[in-house]
Amino acid sequence: MDKIEQKIKNKICQANKEYYTYEVAQGFEDTIYNTKLHLLFDEIKKNLHKEDNKVIEIGCGSGRITKFLYKQEKIKQIYCLDLSENMLKVLKSKLNQEELKKAFFICEDATNYFRRCQNKFDIIIISSALHHIYDYLELLNFCSQKLNERGFIYIYDEPLPINHNGYLNRLISYWDMSFNEERRLRKYCYFIYGLINFISPIFKIKFFRKIKKKLQDDEEGGKYIDYWAYKKEKINLNKIMEIFEKNEIKIIRCEKYTGDYSTKLSSKIANFFKIKDVFYLVGAKEN
Fold first, then answer.
1. pLDDT tens readout for residues 160-187
2. Closest CA to 144 of 248, 287, 254
3. pTM score
4. Are residues 123 and 33 in the same domain?
5. Are both 33 and 101 inside the same structural domain?
């Protein structure tokens, strides 16, 4: 990694640390919901073949998936990895003494951890976290190598490329953000930004592109928090599959679906137009 890439990665890490410190302080960490989590839970339960599974959850946050893992008798060790110390503190506070006995907490950049760790895992889970990681392909290569035979890797709720959905997705996403924003000026900025994102690629109006650039610059922090969600290319599903194939991991499920929005109106519009803006992937390491 060269100096420029390292600088971007450092900005991403810092922006995420600051954002999730704020989120915990405001009590937002438990307001996140996802109506498709049952897909992940059902798949994990179905694939618990061993009696003593060792699991690592990358980007565990405050534990909306972790709590489910502790209820599974066949899971004996759970490694909870997150960049935010505050999120890990919240997670620890939710666990009882028995659950804490099989818990390991790691506050570190995921790629750095996997680069040096000696452990191997039966299950690796990455949920809504991959797009926060600059060197996510390198991370997945390490994860593939740290997966035991007959182990499973789950990548859940990650953004698809914008050209998969068209620009309607941009319009709905930014309008959804505007509905939730309490600051009036920022609310209008998101609303206008969504409209500009929708019409400027169609009409190629230079004036709109200038306004769009100015608003993008204002959202510098957000661009680093959700780095690959802001980038046009997003998470590259084909490259992920190439890495899995190279490491003899078979894709057993790949599903594209409509992600959750924070307002019912946005969700209804997205579902009506059948916008597939996120994906879910399950890989299995063969014998």
1. 765 444 566 666 666 665 655 555 555 5
2. 248
3. 0.82
4. yes
5. yes
